[in-house]
């Protein structure tokens, strides 16, 4: 299990970032998405659509440079109830932000 910070979330995908680990890097990822503010977790399979590596400084134990990875993931496989939950969460979160903005 690898943790990552979720930067953006939509009903179709997300953007995340974490230290890059070449040993576990894959174009297909299994995700457990904890929805902020509610006690729900969505499980999905995702396809990495882009990844941008930035130098972090320092080296890995094998002597290779360390990188920070920011990646876009398209959500592909999830159950219908979880897809509806995610869609509704995204819609309600955007609506609440618009109301706060005035």
Written account of the structure:
It is a single chain. This protein has 102 residues and is of the alpha+beta class. Helix content is 22%, strand content 50%. A five-stranded antiparallel beta sheet has the order 1-2-5-4-3. A hairpin with a 3-residue loop joins strand 1 (5-9) and strand 2. The radius of gyration is 16 Å and the shape is globular. The chain starts with a strand and ends with a helix. The model has no long low-confidence stretch (mean pLDDT 92).
Strand order in space, largest sheet? 1-2-5-4-3
Q: Based on CA inertia axes, which overall geometry fits? A: globular
Instruction: Specify the structural class.
Output: alpha+beta
Cα(first) to Cα(last) distance is 40 Å
Largest sheet: 5 strands, antiparallel
Helix content: 10-25%
Low-confidence stretches: none
User: What is the residue-mean pLDDT, rounded to a whole number?
Assistant: 92
Strand content: over 45%
Number of helices: 1
> How many strands?
5
How are helices and strands ordered from N to C?
EEEEEH
Rg, alpha carbons? 16 Å
């Amino acid at each position: 299990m690898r943790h990552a910070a979720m930067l953006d979330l939509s009903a179709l995908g997300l953007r995340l970032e974490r230290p890059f680990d070449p040993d576990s890097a894959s174009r297909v990822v299994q995700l457990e998405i904890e929805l902020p503010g509610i006690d729900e977790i969505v499980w999905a399979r995702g396809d990495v659509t882009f990844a941008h590596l930035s130098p972090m400084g320092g080296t890995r134990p094998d002597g290779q440079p360390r990188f920070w990875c920011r990646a876009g993931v398209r959500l592909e496989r999830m159950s219908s109830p979880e897809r509806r939950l995610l869609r509704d969460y995204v819609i309600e979160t955007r609506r609440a932000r618009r109301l706060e903005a005035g």
